[in-house]
Amino acid sequence: MNREKLVRRHCPHLEEIDLSSPLTVGNGGFAFTADITGFQTLYGTYEKAFPLCCMAEWAWHTTPRTAAEEGDLIMTEYAHAGRTVRYPVEQKVGNEGVYNWLRHNPHKFNLARVFLVSDGREIKADDVAAISQTLDIFEGRLESRFEVNGTAVKVETICDFESDTLGFSVETDGDFSVRIAFPYGHHGMAASNWNSTNSDKHFSVLRQNSIVRNMDNICYSVGVCGGEIAKITEHVFEIFGGEFTLNFSKCEKNADEKNTNNVLTFAALKERTAATWSDFWLKCGLVDFSQSADLRAAELERRVILSLYLCRIQSCGALPPAETGLTLNSWYGRFHLEMHAWHSAFWAFFGCSELLERSLGWYKAVLPKARANAQFNGFAGARWQKQCCPDGTDSPSPIAPLLIWQQPHILYMLDLVAELGGKGREFLADFWEIVKETADFMCDFAHFEKNGENERFCLVAPIIPAQEEHDPKIVKNPTFELEYWRYGLKIAMKWAEKLEIEIDKSWRTVYNKIADLPHDGEVYLAHENCPTTFVEFNRDHPSMVAALGLLPQDRADAVIMRRTLERVVECWEMDTMWGWDFAMMAMTAARLGEAELAVDLLLLDTPKNAYVASGNNFQRTREDLPLYLPGNGSLLLAVAAIVGRLPKGWTAEVEGILGV
After folding, report:
1. Average of pLDDT values for 648-652?
2. d(CA 643, CA 595)
3. What distance in Å separates the CA atoms of residue 313 and residue 435, rounded to the nearest whole number?
4. Residue 660 pLDDT
5. Is pLDDT larger for residue 660 or for residue 531?
6. Is the pLDDT of residue 160 over 50?
7. Residues 6 or more apart from 279 whose CB is under 8 A from it?
8. Which of 166, 354, 462, 520 is spaced 20 to 30 Å from 568 by Cα?
C-alpha cells in the first residue's frame, strides 16, 4: 500500500469561503481552527455558522457566582425498587440560578483569536480573492494562498505535537501584520465573550516575549518566538515578523512577573510536525477502496482518512473528548461519557490502542467522585458520570443523571486496550480497581425480582435509555443496556480470572440471571414496557440494534435482530438519528452478514450523516453542531467491522485494521 498517496488524495482543498468547513490543526489536546486565510481573520463572517476558536483541554474557565447562583441544588425524587432516589434533573422554581451555574461551569473557553490585518486595518471577506487553501494532512500543514485587495499572500499554519505551539509563516509584499486578541471566557458555542473588557475579570500583561493572561480561576501565557510584540489595546497585541510561533501554556495564578520563553522556531516546528504526522500515517490502520467498482467507494475512503485526521487532532488527549472536540463548545465544552467509546474505541482496532489508553487514566483520577455519585443514592461501587468536566463533577440535566449506558463503556474500552494492545498483567492490575468498582455498581443497581419460580435481575426506573425519548418513570429493561450490562460483567469476571482474584459471587449471579432481552416475538423492543417502539418511538437512536452490533453476538437472536433492523430501516424517522446511529446500524448489518445493507447504512444520505469538505460530520438539522466527532469515531469503528465483510463491487486493501 502506498500510504502517502492514499492519504494525500484526500487533503481538503478550498477555493472559496466555506462556512461549514473551516480547517483545523491540532495535536490531540490542543487545536486551532482557521478560515481561508490560515488565521482567524474573517472571524465575524464565520461566527454564527462556525465560530473560530483556539482551544486546549487544560483551558477551563469558571465564572464567579452571583448571589442568585449560590446555594445547594434541589434534587428530583423518584421511586426506585421500593425506595426513594434523588437526582439533579428538574430545574426547580427559585433554584434556577444554582442549576444553570452548575450546568455552565466550568466551561472550555477560547484562548485567543489570531488574525491578519492589512495596513493596520481588519480585513473583510469582500477584500479576499483568488483563494487556494489546502490542508496537507500527511504533514499536518495548512497552506493558504489568497489576495487581499490585489496583493498576494501565502500563509502556512502548523501545530506542534509535543507542546501546545502554533507556527505561522506569512509571505507577501504587502503591509500586513498579525494581531492576537483575548476574549473573556464564555460557556456558549463560540466560547468567547468579546464585550467584557473589565480588568477586574481578566487582564493581559506583556512581559518581553510573552503575554500573560489572568482570568478569574485560570492563568495562561502565550510565548512568542520569531516576532516582535506590541500592545495595541488592553486585550489586543500586534506581532511583526514573517515567521513566528505561539506557545500556549497554563501557568500559576498572577504569574505576570514570569517570563515564559518559547524557543521553538517555525522551521524547527515545521520539520518536527511533518515527521510526527508521517510516523502516524505509516503506523495506523488504513484501508484503500480505490479498486472498488462501487462509485461510493471514494467517498467512504475520504471519510475514513479525514476522520482519522480529525480524531487524531481532537480525540487523543488526557480527557475524554467533547462532542465538538477542541473546535468549539457544545454542551459548554463538557464531555459525555456515553460518547467516549463512539469517539475513541476504534483506535484499538486501527492498531493505535495507546491513543485510546491516554484518556482512560482519567477514570482513576475521578474515581472518588464516581463512588460518591453511587453512594449518594445508596449504591455500592462507582457510578460513572454522564456530562462532566475535568474534576469529574457531574452536571444537572433533564436527561444526563438518568442515563446508565455509559457505565459499561470503561470496561469495554479497557478490554479493547488489553486484548488488541497486547497488554499484560501489569495493565490489568493497574486498572483492576476501576473494573471492580464499575462491576460492583452494576450488580447493586440491578434489581432482583422473583415471580414464582422465575428469578431475574432487572434494570428498573428511573432510567433513560440510550434512546432518550422515553419516560424515565416507566422504563424497564432497555434492550441494549441489558445486554451491555451482561457483557460488562463478563469482562470483569474475565479480568478477575486473569489476575487470579476470586470472582465476586454477585457478579456471576447477576450475569447468569439478568433479564432476557425484551421482544414481541418478532422484533426487539426499546424496553420491556414499550410495545409501541416502532409506532410511537420510531425516532432518535434505535439503540436496541446495538445489542448485536456494537456488541458481538451472545444472547441476541440473529433472526429477531435481523427483523428488528429491517423494521428500523422501514419505519424509523431517519432525520432524527444522530451521526453515530448510522455506524451502529452498519455494524449490526455486518455482524448479521448483510454486507450490502451495512454499506448502504453507513453512507445513507440523510442530514445528520453529512460529511463536509473538512471531513467533519455536520449535524445539518442542528445549528449548534456544525461538527460531531462521535460520528467520525463511530464511522471508523464500523469500517473495522465491515472491511472483512464487503459486498459485491467492493474491494479493500487493508493494512493494520483488526476486525471487530
Report:
1. 96
2. 10
3. 29
4. 78
5. 531
6. yes
7. none
8. 462
Residue whose cell numbers read 464499575? 438
Q: How far is CA 390 from CA 106, 108, 215, 639, in A?
A: 9, 10, 18, 31
pLDDT digits (tens, 9 = 90+) for 589-617: 999 999 999 999 999 999 999 999 999 99
The CA distance from 274 to 67, in Å, is 51
Give the whole-angstrom CA distance, residue 331 versus residue 280: 31
Q: How many CB atoms lie within 10 A of CB 248?
A: 24
- Kindly state the helix (H) or strand (E) to which residue 153 belongs, with its residue range: strand 151-159
C-alpha cell recorded at residue 655: 493494512
Q: Strands 151-159, 165-172: parallel, antiparallel or unpaired by DSSP?
A: antiparallel
Distances (CA, A) of 103 to 90, 107, 383, 400, 433: 12, 9, 19, 11, 29
Cell of 164: 501546545
Q: Which residues contact 67 (CB under 8 A, 6 or more apart)?
A: none
> Is-contact 244 226, C-beta < 8 A?
yes
Res 254: pLDDT: 59
pLDDT at residue 259 tops 50: no
Instruction: Give the phi and the psi of residue 8 in degrees, each rounded to 5.
Output: -65, -25
Give the number of other CB atoms < 10 A from CB of residue 315.
30
Over residues 610-625, the mean pLDDT reads: 97
Please give the single-letter amino acid code of residue 133: Q
Backbone angles phi, psi at 492, to 5 degrees: -60, -45
Helix H or strand E encompassing 215:
strand 210-215
Which ranges of 451-541 would DSSP assign to H, the alpha helix? 479-498, 505-513, 533-536
pLDDT digits (tens, 9 = 90+) for 398-413: 999 999 999 999 999 9
- Closest to 108 in 3D by CA, of 25, 31, 212: 31
Is the model's pLDDT at 197 over the cut of 80? no
Question: Which residues are paired to 154 by β-bridges?
Answer: 145, 171
Residue-level pLDDT at 257: 46
